[in-house]
Amino acid sequence: MLEAEDVVVAHGRRRVIEDLSFTLRRGERVAVVGPNGAGKTSLLRALAGLSRPAGGRVRLHGRDLHRLRERERARHLAFVAQDEHTDLPYRARDVLLLGRSAGRGDWHRYDGDDHAVIAEVAERWELTGLLDRTLDALSGGERRRVLLARAFAQDAEAVLLDEPTNHLDLRHQHALLAHLRDTGATAVLTLHDLDLAAAYCTRVLLLQHGRVLADGEPEAALSATRVSEVYGVPVTAVHVGGRARILVG
Ligand SMILES: Nc1ncnc2c1ncn2[C@@H]1O[C@H](COP(=O)(O)OP(=O)(O)OP(=O)(O)O)[C@@H](O)[C@H]1O
After folding, report:
1. For residue range 144-200, what is the model confidence (pLDDT) as tens digits?
2. CA of 126 to the centre of ligand 1 (A)
3. What domains does the chain contain, in order, with CATH numbers?
4. ipTM attached to this prediction
5. Do 44 and 190 touch, CB atoms closer than 8 A?
């Protein structure tokens, strides 16, 4: 559904993604991993249509992503940034409603369906009792759950999540990834936790210095040798419960 072809992303004159090609198919959950500064956020923003590549193109169902209107993009792609400004005095309920109007236009009139979706996502993300609180009066993890719930309320074809597990406690991290898996969501998410990537994602894209070092099934992409080399720490892969876990040391 989403295709990057020879994409170059530059900040000023510095190229941070080099000739990257990537195709996202429906039902794939792709973890984008790699060291700090590898280019994960830069890639995700280009895939979301939030930054224009300095070279190459991104296509959504065969159409140039940057030629689509924001509303149309929002029908297909919901994006949650790594560090959205969440200290604003907006009520959580209004933030979730913004998810409903994305893709439907500024003059969208909320109806019973919208409120039903909001109630459902609020319950799923344990926000029901917080809906009338403003974002600046929530904890970091609660704010993060509001932004994730907003993306799910948008009901887009795919979600693009930049470090979605930041600020989430262990239970909520697993709840988020299990939700993506159990609903068969199409997702691209940047993650630092390689075990979470391996446990829940169908595919791993490993970046280093803006280039793809590996792209494939988690166990193959995240071999102990490769992870040791890329991150510069000794790691061992051990099999627990039928799958590989990465241990440092
Ligand atoms: N607005 C910007 N202006 C200039 N350089 C930038 C800008 N944003 C990012 N960069 C640089 O681009 C490179 C890639 O950054 P990016 O945020 O994509 O990496 P990342 O893999 O997401 O890193 P992290 O794991 O630390 O979040 C880094 O070298 C960074 O310093």
Report:
1. 999 999 999 999 999 999 999 999 999 999 999 999 999 999 999 999 999 999 999
2. 32
3. 2-84+156-248 (3.40.50.300)
4. 0.98
5. yes
Q: Whose CA is nearest to atom 25 of ligand 1?
A: 36
For 156, the token pair is 């887009």
The mean pLDDT value of the chain amounts to: 93
Location of structure tokens 């074809």:
157
What CA–CA distances, in Å, run from 233 to 197, 228, 247, 248? 18, 5, 10, 7
Q: How far is the centre of ligand 1, averaged over its atoms, from the C-alpha of 17 (Å)? A: 10
Mutate to test the pocket of ligand 1, among 13, 14, 190 (most ligand atoms within 8 A of CB): 14
Of 67, 53, 75, give the one whose Cα is nearest residue 157.
75
Q: Does 216 sit in the ligand 1 pocket, CB within 6 Å?
A: no
Question: Does any ligand 1 atom lie closer than 6 A to the CB of residue 11?
Answer: yes
Q: Is 173 in the pocket of ligand 1 (CB under 6 A)?
A: no
Residue-wise pLDDT tens digits, 94-135: 999 989 888 676 666 777 788 898 999 999 999 999 999 999
Query: What is the residue with the minimal CA distance to atom 3 of ligand 1?
Result: 11
